[in-house]
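Internal tracking record. Fields below are filled automatically when a chain is submitted to the structure queue. Please do not edit lines marked as system-generated. If the sequence contains nonstandard residues, flag them in the REMARKS field before resubmitting.
Queue: standard
Priority: normal
Entity type: single polypeptide chain
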Amino acid sequence: MKQPKQNLPKDVTGSPAAARSAAKTASSHSGPAAPRRPSSRAVRSAERREAIIAAGLEEFIARGFAATRLDDVARRAGVAKGTIYLHFKDKEALFEELIRTAIVPLVARLGAPPALDGSVRDMIESFARTFIQEVATTKRGDIVRLIVAEGPRFPNVADFYYREVVSRGLSDMRALIELGIARGEIAQKNLARFPQILVAPAIVAVIWQSLFSKHAPLDAIEMFRVHLDLIFGERRPT
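SYSTEM-GENERATED OUTPUT FOLLOWS
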């Protein structure tokens, strides 16, 4: 029985093999496929997740960790309570995501190496300015204050904050201090044992902002400069 002939395109020589080669070559020059756009379902899911996180932030700030209920988060986010469980297993997981997205990226900046033409002090001062402007005087600061206030009652939350924020920040700060000592910028070598001293004004600023700012507004950035003068020595006017 005869096999049916394949209807292969032919080139000008009439060779099916040449046609196959030409087709392959044309395919290789067609360029990379356009990146696939996320489906509308994926977009809606991402939007709901962001709404839940934003609502969670507002509820935690308003009520504290203990008193916040996922029912209230869902109501504020405009979603069903069951939708929250599609993204977070419980209230603690939602709070951890707030820390991961709002605080951790700022601390990660501290781990970046200093510019070749910059000093260790310049980098620490830049980080302090960013921390004070983006944490101490914003809703991110409320997250830190909530940890301070309720962390002892919820050790899992405090442990998570220590792992993701405090331990990383102290490690990076210690590395900067050691670099400053090696460069001769810092005379007190024991400071590397207690990097908490270097970041203490940032914590003071966060607490002061919530408790005493209406009585005595604090210029936290200027306070930090004075603190760095004590560590690095006063800067001479240029």
